[in-house]
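From the shared-data thread, chain only:
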Amino acid sequence: MLHLVQVPQWLWAVITIMNVSVIPYEHIEDFCGLGVKDMGFERWTAFLTKRKIFVIFAWLLLFAATLPWALTVTKHLTPAGFGRPESQATWATNQAARLHPPPTPIPILIDHLSFAKVQSLAHSEHIPTKSFHRMSSGRILYLPLAGTQMAQETGLIRNIHLSHGQWQDVTQGTIGNRVSQDSSKTLAISGLMALPVLAILLFFIYGSIAAILLPLIIAITGSELALAIISIIETHIQLSVFLTNIATFLALGVGIDYALFISNRFRQALSRGESVERAVVESMRHAGRSVLYSGIAVALAVAALLIGGDAYWRGLALGGSIAIASVLLATHSLLPAIMGLMGRHIDWGRLKRMPNMGFWRRLSQWVTQRAWVAIIIGLGVLMPLAFFGAQINMKTPANLATMLPLNSSIRQAVIREQKIQGAGSITPLAVAIHLSPSLTSNAGWNRIFSVTKKLSALPNVKKVASPTTSLGLKSQQLAALIKRPQRFPTALRTGISNFMTPSDTHLVVLYVTAKTGPDNPATSNLVHRIDQNLPLWLPKGSKAAVGGQVPILRSFNILTQHRLPIIIASALAVAFIVLAIATSSVIQAFLGVIFDALVALATAGLLVLVVQHGQWGFEAQPLDSSITPLIFVLLFGLSMDYEVILLHRIQEPLAEGETVRLAAAHGVATTGSMITGAGMVMVVVFLSLLISPLQVMKTLAIGLSFAILVDTWIVRSFLVPAAISVLGRHAYWPWRIPQKSSCDTRDGNLSAERYQEEE
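Structure, as tokens:
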């Protein structure tokens, strides 16, 4: 009965790709006589080129249908997500969030008004003059004193507006929103800045106006589809707002790279006189296959961030993987259709190319003939920086103001606030206690009295805000207040709502202010000490923990430091497996992992010197835990692009019987300008992030740009071909390098036309 089933051509093509694309090189020769070498890509490409108008129209419909989702992608994203749902710190933070205390006055920064004018406005609202502090920038910081009512601050703000002044909140929540806004603003502006530069760079790489449209179309289409998918799934799971930056720039970078690799091969085939259909098939069979492997490697490497264990890393892992999958879908469906439609018009608006100076041919010959010298040069560049990589120190700051530039007015206001009210005043520790006896009993409040006293006695504690100290009531009175609140004055009912919620008479939240700042190790030690002692101070059946910004980020930093080696090991394992499958060589997979690890250490060393030691205009700070693992993971993933392209290009002449040294030289000569050009495209994309006022974004820009430059110019141009030349016929073990190819009888010998230099 099976012979009666008509399998659609497109389905047969997909099935064949999945089965044939993983055939090792040593077995491919066995299939050459049957004519099924890379049959999957040929069938799929043939399907696309025959129905190119339909494919392009389908993508236009898909783009139009998903655009509304892509434009609203940030609607449900969260700037939080740094806490693990099962952690004690997250539980305590969630318990504190259950409280609904009445609004209280908060610090504000006043601008465009004189100090005398502000004092006059404050006098009309009966606000003490000593609440106001002059700032060096001419601004005025208002710090409400105890007893100030919300109505007084509201009146002050109203008067500031009427006097044409300006004001802004000075709270950690406001600062967090500012960081998120600056990140989104950076994404929009840097994207606008990068596109013209990319267009110019691509014009000189491609040499024609028509050709530069291909990578831009693929990059924009892939990123739009990725954002739309993220917008759909974000309503079901918590995702970080930062993933829009990562997904967009990752899709933009790899989309341009992948389109560059494939369309370059397409243009070369056309220049040799191949038909348009045959050129599309060849480009997908070779470059398309390499791109597929590298894309899978990047997606899996980014997915390793799932090991981070919280919503922040889950969002980045999911967003990055979706971005790569979207780009792969575009490059393996839309791109072949567009190339088939453009045909030889892809060279329209062609630039008169500079004479081929043979730079990459000469460099490849020198590297392969003087392999040990090339290895020494490459290691000489990387090893000194790698030495400093071991000194890396990571920490996401709990004082979010330190993420802003030093000259930021709101950061200066926070510094002044800490000097006046104490370093720990900006981020009090929320001690959530779920007591086993109800707080409607005297025994429950006696226990809270005891815990408050013990907290106050701990080293590094400045003060403890508790119902037992703030309301001036005894245990019996507090229990009565909880049981019959209507019998007490409004002021007491309002006061207790700062610490309890009416829906839970077992829950109370105390607020501990440390003497030291939120990022001081002494504050972290205080959190640890409180968490250790709470079970000893409370009866059995109770639950208590420290919540708030400091313990959440403390937990995040500790978890990230512990899991970073596992994340990196997973990314390296992915790189090893993908390279082993793509090249049928354990040796090449091993070398790829070693070189990637060396580049990662060198990148870490550069960041240590620049960021931790405060060079090139950077403020000396630990590397941010929320961005550093991402740099390494993206490095491992993106390096697979260039590695797979280079190794596959070297294998082509090897499969035809060429010597290892000449094959390595041909690989560098034919891909050198393309790989370094693609690397420069990525560098432009990442360097555009330098316009951000946030040091964390600049760190991402410097780290990834350096890693890509070193990977393309040092590792792919020197270390890889030199190592292959030194290893000789063992370079691709266990793949057996054939002495003479039995396949592709059209071009049995290596020809200069087929392996022309790409200048």
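The chain is about 65% helix and 5% strand.
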